[in-house]
Amino acid sequence: xxxxxxxxxxxxxxxxxxxxxxxxxxxxxxxxxxxxxxxxxxxxxxxxxxxxxxxxxxxxxxxxxxxxxxxxxxxxxxxxxxxxxxxxxxxxxxxxxxxxxxxxxxxxxxxxxxxxxxxxxxxxxxxxxxxxxxxxxxxxxxxxxxxxxxxxxxxxxxxxxxxxxxxxxxxxxxxxxxxxxxxxxxxxxxxxxxxxxxxxxxxxxxxxxxxxxxxxxxxxxxxxxxxxxxxxxxxxxxxxxxxxxxxxxxxxxxxxxxxxxxxxxxxxxxxxxxxxxxxxxxxxxxxxxxxxxxxxxxxxxxxxxxxxxxxxxxxxxxxxxxxxxxxxxxxxxxxxxxxxxxxxxxxxxxxxxxxxxxxxxxxxxxxxxxxxxxxxxxxxxxxxxxxxxxxxxxxxxxxxxxxxxxxxxxxxxxxxxxxxxxxxxxxxxxxxxxxxxxxxxxxxxxxxxxxxxxxxxxx
Amino acid sequence: xxxxxxxxxxxxxxxxxxxxxxxxxxxxxxxxxxxxxxxxxxxxxxxxxxxxxxxxxxxxxxxxxxxxxxxxxxxxxxxxxxxxxxxxxxxxxxxxxxxxxxxxxxxxxxxxxxxxxxxxxxxxxxxxxxxxxxxxxxxxxxxxxxxxxxxxxxxxxxxxxxxxxxxxxxxxxxxxxxxxxxxxxxxxxxxxxxxxxxxxxxxxxxxxxxxxxxxxxxxxxxxxxxxxxxxxxxxxxxxxxxxxxxxxxxxxxxxxxxxxxxxxxxxxxxxxxxxxxxxxxxxxxxxxxxxxxxxxxxxxxxxxxxxxxxxxxxxxxxxxxxxxxxxxxxxxxxxxxxxxxxxxxxxxxxxxxxxxxxxxxxxxxxxxxxxxxxxxxxxxxxxxxxxxxxxxxxxxxxxxxxxxxxxxxxxxxxxxxxxxxxxxxxxxxxxxxxxxxxxxxxxxxxxxxxxxxxxxxxx
Lengths: 459, 459
Hints:
Two copies of one chain form a homodimer.
Chain A: H1 2-24, H2 35-52, E1 55-59, E2 66-71, E3 79-85, E4 105-107, E5 110-112, H3 120-137, E6 143-149, H4 159-165, H5 167-170, E7 174-177, E8 189-194, E9 196-205, E10 211-212, H6 213-216, H7 223-231, H8 255-262, H9 268-275, H10 288-294, E11 299-306, E12 315-316, E13 319-328, H11 334-348, E14 354-363, E15 366-367, H12 373-386, E16 391-395, H13 400-408, E17 413-417, E18 431-433, H14 434-450, E19 453-454, E20 457-458
Parallel strand pairs in A: 3-6, 3-7, 7-17, 8-16
Antiparallel strand pairs in A: 1-2, 2-6, 4-5, 5-18, 8-15, 8-17, 9-13, 9-14, 10-12, 11-13, 19-20
Helix pairs in contact in A: 1-3, 1-14, 3-14, 12-14
């Protein structure tokens, strides 16, 4: 590998200059005014990968285009699918940025720009790694297909249909994604679990119009009173979701997971300070990390009823509503949970009111393999690059595409993140440490070599 | 009285024509664009009363003017204070009116216009009654002071200070107000009780910013979850307010009240149908009328937290809030109740959250005398005019000025309403039956005669 590492190091300045160009394009997928920038960014990326030796195309999806880059070395080599995204979250100085979000600058060894870590910077680790292999040896150790979409930050609305229409192109032995993070700076991690989601809206209707609370107060069920009484019973004082059957399918945490996470020395007091709360709170019997990563929740995401302007309006509201969602963990099915929640809500409804429940969104939880050649190779690559063994962690959020790939391609998915949890993805002053970019590139370069298995043997 | 009744009948057409003019002026006090109309209406009214023989003035209040009309006949006669208002609620065709709200028309014996019953039409009964006395006999049987304000529908912001500044002018032996209603068409009523109000806003804050419900769900108290849990405990399943001490000062309903109201044959099923609910609901052990008129309540008037737009946003909100208010009954003090509610709310707050409670509005409940010369005279006057004895009722809402008069003037207040509950005050197609206007005028004319007591004897 020394030849490849040497090329990686020699390429640093040029790669960084290109990353600055890449980050300068405001490819904000959610803002129609930036549609042309998104398109320009796709073409910039395709040209860059073409120059490196990939067969590239900018694919129309119905929304913003996806960039596909492909290099097939040999039928006998395994094929890797890299998924990433070149679009970014909105950003403007008024949000509190200290530097222009689309004028990247390096300060104290960190590159500051929207997309620095999510996901342009992490994506660049893969580009640098592939380039080093190609420069040093004229070829890749595996076949590599890159699918880099332009709508991740605006809902990936066209991704599923694009994948469905391109199953042959995308079929791979494994999928690798670098859109997560290290556990903390200097502590590399592989993410093997993501929570799912079951998101509902509940609306309660009482009288056929808003009533005067003086004239009618005491005569009818108040839908806002009823809503609070119903929702207030869904989570008990110990933080446990109080819905019959809710925990029935939960795959319990294994002892090794609890041990490994406990050894991370998570600073709960520091988190409480950072969030500005006197104390954290959650299901009794689990640590904060366990609760955030591997236990299901029920959170109210929105409440609305009656009058919420300034001052007093004596209305007895005709309607009250809430958005609520459960984060789900492995074993739980979003549709089944939605049915349980709906049954519980309706069961708690008193007479004199009607209720409507709408299912807004669902995502299956994901538990990826924690062993096998791809995971083992990723561990080894990270350990060599960082000088420290990675930890196996989960994440509390959902990345729907992971479930899509795991399900549709039936291939192992490796979530190898190089950024840090405090890199401020989606926030002002997003950044990525240059050392993380370089170590990430090295890790990918080593990973490609390690997974180049032919006939059960490393090449 | 025959001479006076004859004059009343002869004056009908002219009075009705004047009422149409009065109703044609869009004196909408809440809408700045109508400020000149409000002013014009005050002057119209002052001129009309001057022509009838009153000493009138349009008094500046800091807001819309008040009309004061005065006729002192003799030091030996009792002095009555009539309170009413010439301003009206907003109204436009787009709200669902069948006829132009400020182009009064008589259809099927009812005059349709904004203000028809609230309060221009009811006020006109007094004008017609006084005029009949003056035409028939050249004088009134009592001294009469009218205070007709122009801000009742926009909060009476300047009324208290105007009263304070004019205590001598307004001092009276009794106050009469016609801004309530009959119990139902054909069943006259005197209203002797009004509920009070204690209106609060509660805000709960958790983390210092909205969090991603995936990354942080399970780590912290969700303020929306906590708000529902807290508010959901404030009223029990039997409709009783679950706040320690809440009922301690409540003056219980007397048996005569319960008997008299039961005899009214209130149609609870009809009310449920009209409100579009399957069943009514309220505190166990009380009839619907008792609950609406004479039992305290706790209603949530507004809820707000997190995301309430279309679709799903996975936010764990930093804040959640509610507006809530209690209707209070005789014996209960708004400040004391606010203190009890606040203590209960704070007592239910779990660790990890902070709470702010703001007191937005309070009004004392009112229980007026149900006997004495003024009430007895009102009963007799109504019975003669309607051919049916009035019932003694209460109302669920608050009319703050009643408490102000009862308190500041120390005089009995008679609430004698001539409209009907279904006259659609504040709604589209507001109306008043002409027969109610004429019977109301007759009742007032008789009332003036009946209360003209000198040296303990009717004149």
